[in-house]
Amino acid sequence: MKKIRIGVLGAYRGTSMINYCKSSEDAQVVAICDKCEATLAEQKTHIDDPSVAFYLTFDEFIKHDMDAVVLANYANEHAPFAIRCLNAGMHVFSEVLPVQTMKEAVELIEAVERSGKVYAYGENYCYIPSCYKMRTLYREGLIGEFEYGEGEYVHNCESIWPSITYGESEHWRNNKYATFYCTHSIGPLIHITGLRPVSVIGLEGTNIARGLRTGQKGGSFGIEMITLENGGIIKSIHGGLYNNSIWYSVYGSKGRMETGREDGEGIHMLYTHSDEFSGQYRPDDRRDYDMNAEKLDKTVPFGHGGSDYYSMYNFIEKLKGNAGADTIDVYEALDMFLPGMFAYRSVLNGGMTMAIPNLRNPEERNKWRNDTFCTDKKVGGEMYVPPFSQGELDIPESVYAQMKALWERELESKSGYMNAAFTQGAAEK
Ligand SMILES: NC(=O)c1ccc[n+]([C@@H]2O[C@H](COP(=O)([O-])OP(=O)(O)OC[C@H]3O[C@@H](n4cnc5c(N)ncnc54)[C@H](O)[C@@H]3O)[C@@H](O)[C@H]2O)c1
Q1: Phi/psi class of residue 201: alpha, beta or left (left: φ > 0; alpha: ψ in -120 to 50)?
Q2: Can you say how many angstroms the Cα of residue 20 is from the centroid of all Cα atoms in its chain?
Q3: Which of 50, 127, 324, 377 has the CA that lies 20 to 30 A from 284?
Q4: Could you tell which of 12, 153, 168 is best to mutate to test the pocket of ligand 1, judged by most ligand atoms within 8 Å of the CB?
């Protein structure tokens, strides 16, 4: 069978998807685009295949003959590129996040519906084997009806901030509000239960000293208290608290299950305590997670506990026509993201409960078609809001100059973060 031809926009985190294609019998990278010459040049040194084309601009890149595009560009700029790819007849695999405004959400959904192409959201944490096993157990009814769950994605990125923002004061990571980057903590719980979020209350961490040192303009961490369509409640927390934590739990009407803690057995461990099914699952027994573990080439560095492999694997299987392929569609992607967006609206409204629109209903879309509420000045226009609820923060240019100098030093010495992406599972952040 002919291999599926993939283009990758964003050659930094995009390394993970490029690695996937290198190890796949079904897909091949044919084009790579990044506007940063240094990043593109570094990527070239890791590609053996002379037929791969390299582009500095998306306008040139999109003309390349491709079946699908992986979007690993800035997290707040995925939707416009996704829409252009769908309109040009290509399938899309989008990194997190799906959109940055409600206007984009409506436009993205309608572009997917019009095109009939596959849109797969790359929320890889759903495919962490322990999280995926939780989904299987839940869908088999062993935990009962969902009543409560928690998701944590806490990552202190202070030490790698120069490598992930390059001294760009307007980089999305510097402009993000506390509840923006929410789908690693919310996503797995949505994917486990399949339930739609209907309302949210948001909270913002206001001890911002660590963030200010590196140029971050938003709150230090975000919390979403989400009510689902069945009345169940999710608590999600994410952001830059001092020590990291990735952890999930689900309480159902027949019992409970949770992953291991960062300081104990870690995310790969799964503990269940329910009427019909109790036990502990070993982290290394991937066969138990029924997701083609035998296909996981252990010589290729797949980050985030191997989940980077499974999100791409399911996308490629979907394109091959495998009916069992489990991808995250555009509606589910928004179920994972809108709670974070509406949580910030809640923060700005003193903690008020905000209803989450159901954009599956075409009638509900009209109200949001022109809504550009976001913290990106280029896109927000009159609906621009500052990333911090207490107002615009005054961060000296010297902070960004220092971040830039550190990034340049790292590039020059070929050390640190960028280089690590090629050896240790691309971009673990
Ligand atoms: N799922 C995960 O675990 C995970 C981990 C890391 C990053 N990410 C996501 O991956 C994406 C990329 O993140 P990143 O860490 O690589 O950093 P990033 O967001 O700074 O960089 C994206 C890359 O895209 C390039 N780029 C941006 N706009 C472009 C344009 N218009 N044309 C060409 N190139 C452009 C930049 O030069 C940069 O190299 C983000 O969406 C981020 O949220 C996800």
Answers
A1: beta
A2: 17
A3: 324
A4: 12
pLDDT band at 112 (very low <50, low <70, confident <90, very high): very high
Structure tokens that stand for 220 in this block: 């230090």
Supply the residue whose CA is at minimum distance from atom 25 of ligand 1.
Answer: 10
Q: How far is the CA of 76 from the centre of ligand 1 (A)?
A: 9
The domain segmentation of the chain, as residue ranges, is 4-124, 126-289+330-383
Top-level class of domain 126-289+330-383? alpha beta
Distance 8 CA to ligand 1 centre (A): 11
Q: How is 34-80 classified by DSSP, letter by letter? A: -S-HHHHHHHHTT---TT-EEES-HHHHTTS--SEEEE-S-TTSHHH
3-state secondary structure of 7: strand
Using 50, 70 and 90 to split pLDDT, how confident is the model at 129?
confident
Residue 60: pLDDT over 70:
yes
CB half-sphere exposure, 357, CA atoms < 13 A: 20
- What confidence category does residue 417 fall into, taking pLDDT thresholds of 50, 70 and 90? low
Tell how far the Cα of 427 is from the centroid of ligand 1, in angstroms.
10
Task: At 247, give phi and psi (nearest 5°).
Answer: -160, 145
Atom 27 in ligand 1: residue holding the nearest Cα: 73
Q: Report CA-CA distances (Å) from 233 to 34, 121, 253.
A: 40, 23, 13
Q: Mean pLDDT, the chain, as a whole number?
A: 92
On the question of a cis peptide bond just before residue 137, with omega within 30 degrees of 0, the verdict is no
In this prediction, residue 189 carries a pLDDT of 98
- Counting from 1 in the atom list of ligand 1, the atom nearest the Cα of 74 is 19
pLDDT in tens, 5-51: 999 999 999 999 999 999 888 999 999 999 999 999 999 999 989 99
**CATH class of the domain at 4-124:** alpha beta
How distant, in Å, are the alpha carbons of 78, 98, 124 from that of 95? 8, 7, 9
Q: DSSP readout, 153-201?
A: EE---GGGHHHHHTT-TT-HHHH--TTSS-HHHHHHHHHHH-PPEEEEE
Q: In the sheet where 53-55 sits, what is the strand order?
A: 53-55, 27-33, 4-9, 68-71, 91-94, 119-121
pLDDT at position 425 over 50: no
